Each structure stands twice: as structure tokens, then as C-alpha cells.
What we know:
The protein has 405 residues and is α/β, with parallel strands linked by helices. It contains 14 helices and 15 strands. Strands 3, 4, 5, 8, 9, 10, 11, 12 and 13 form a nine-stranded mixed beta sheet that branches. The chain has a six-stranded mixed beta sheet with strand order 6-2-1-7-15-14, with helices on one face. The longest helix is centred in the last third of the chain and has 31 residues, at 305-335.
Amino acid sequence: xxxxxxxxxxxxxxxxxxxxxxxxxxxxxxxxxxxxxxxxxxxxxxxxxxxxxxxxxxxxxxxxxxxxxxxxxxxxxxxxxxxxxxxxxxxxxxxxxxxxxxxxxxxxxxxxxxxxxxxxxxxxxxxxxxxxxxxxxxxxxxxxxxxxxxxxxxxxxxxxxxxxxxxxxxxxxxxxxxxxxxxxxxxxxxxxxxxxxxxxxxxxxxxxxxxxxxxxxxxxxxxxxxxxxxxxxxxxxxxxxxxxxxxxxxxxxxxxxxxxxxxxxxxxxxxxxxxxxxxxxxxxxxxxxxxxxxxxxxxxxxxxxxxxxxxxxxxxxxxxxxxxxxxxxxxxxxxxxxxxxxxxxxxxxxxxxxxxxxxxxxxxxxxxxxxxxxxxxxxxxxxxxxxxxxxxxxxxxxxxxxxxx
Length: 405
């Protein structure tokens, strides 16, 4: 149906969409426009889970095989609280360097005949002629911003501050570390993405950031302070920031993006240009690739472009509801860390694993822990939890909407 397609943004979503479109019909004319030079990217490693890998194997076995081969795996989580630690088994997770993932997808796209144009900045003023223009240009999408009223974008800032770093410490599992300071708690999420490096995301409340002077420290001084705070898990390895050419290393506040509609004429949003979910659930890359899969399917199965885009939007908005809820509750768990941090380590870690639950904020933590353990053995109680959680969440959401009026 779409003979000529222009993907704006050479991230995982745009590249994977181009692969799927070329696999569906080699005669499609597909170009990926990336504003940055070839080989440049931000970020360290990305995470994904077995369910995504299974889908990638179905959609394009060739790229899935290489992605799996280049990924590292873990099936445990460990939480350090002060000088205590607890380790628990979990679902198998996968980590891969963002640069490596883009390299794999770009090579596969090129082999299928996709044109990749780097240092090709596309704005609303120089849109390429195409049957379909895909805005996969990230949360700050220039194309979406230009038509902001049509898309109805809404950005909601979280409370906590975070910084995205790398380290040469290779963690053997998904690692959490919570450190108490005189200015409050600061914590990190660490996970490996190669045999040589790991990602280390550090987060804290704004008053802790200011109290520790991290909001005013230069990059070198700030990294040195963080290395000292997390020395017990880094084993003397350094933390690594982004190069100045990539924008440097900064403390940020996560912003959740939603859009009222995902398409306008022949322009459609993809990945972070359409939605974001808090990094603490590790789903960003997975959701972006699932967008690409859904859009490719809709374009193949629908008789016309408006129908395809409507189908894509409807399907992905529905699929995102549970993930957006999980991300919102996960972010709130960390924003209310003091509610859980003083529990015995095994209980705290258990509730850390339950942080996506809409029921957890409404039940005293120790009672929830006991209920959760009992629910694992009693089917009726498990069903009651599944019924009550969404009911409480809907009530809280309705009250929040009323309070804004």
C-alpha cells in the first residue's frame, strides 16, 4: 500500500520498521533519515525480556539471531540496603548496548535495500515526499512539536532526579543499591549489557540532590562523589559519563509523554515520539519495537492508509494501558521510598518486585507482603487482589481528574 516511506529518526523503532516493510514487500521505497552522524548514539545499555525476543524471532529471524548472540543475560536480582543484601531469582532478562543494537538493525536494514541517510535533519519545513512519513525522532520530536495542537501531546514531569551512567563494573545480575545519607536516600539500578560494561542509573529526591551538592558539582566532582557513595557495589570501578559531544552528563527529571492522537494525514508517531514510560520498568526499547511491529502489520492488512493508521493507534494505545499503569506505579514507589525502605530486606525486595501493583499504595506494606505470600498459595485471594487493585486505581485516577478541574 505505501510505496514510498520516510522514517525520520534512526533509533530502534525506525530501523526495525524499515526492516519489516522491506521484508513484506521488497519493492517498497524506504529511507531512514537520522540527524546524527553514523555511529553516534546516546545511552549505554538497554534491557528487554524473553517475550520480546520471541516476537523478534517471528518477525525477522535474521536480526533476532544476531541480537540474541550479542546480548548478555541474567536471571537474578540483588538489592543492597545499607550494609545488607538480599538476592532473589527472577525472570530471565537481557541487556545489549544501544550502540550495538543500532549497528545490528542498521546492517540488516541496509542488506534489505533500505537507504540510511545520516546527518539528515528533517523538520516540518523540509519533509521528504513520501506516501507515509514516520516520526520516530524521539520524545523531543520536531515533527510532533510542529503540529502540537493536532497531536495533543502532554508531558508530565516526575518528582525525582536521575542520571544515566556507564561503568566498567560488570554486574552479574540486575542490581539495586540503596544508600542512606544525611540528606536522604540515593539509589541506583545497575545491569550488564556486554562482557565489559554495565549501565548504572542513579536516582534521588530533589532535596537529596541539592543537599549532596550534586546539582552544583562539575561532572568530574559529581562522578567522584557518586563513586564513593556506591563503592560497595562498584568494586573500585569508575562511573562513566557521556562525552561532551553527546551533550555531556546531566541530572534530569523524567517526563512521561502521552498524545491524544498518533497520526495526522500521512504523518504518524512511533516510539518515544508517541509515548514514554518510566525507565524503572525497563520497557522503552521493547515498546518502541512493538510499535514498529504493529504499524507494519496494520499497513500490510489494511486497505487504505487512514484505516491502517487508525488501526495502529487503537491497537497500541490499548496495549500500552497496562505498561503505562505499571510505569506510573513504579515511579511512585521510588518517590515514596521511605514507606518501604525500613522493612526487613527480604520484605523490601519482595515489594520492590511488586511496585507495579495498583493495590500496593493503599495497603500497609507489611500487610501487603503477607497478603502477597498468601495469594501465591490461595487462588481465591489472588483473584481478589487482581480485582481490587484496578478498582482502587480507577478511583484514585477519577479523584485526580476531579481535583484538576
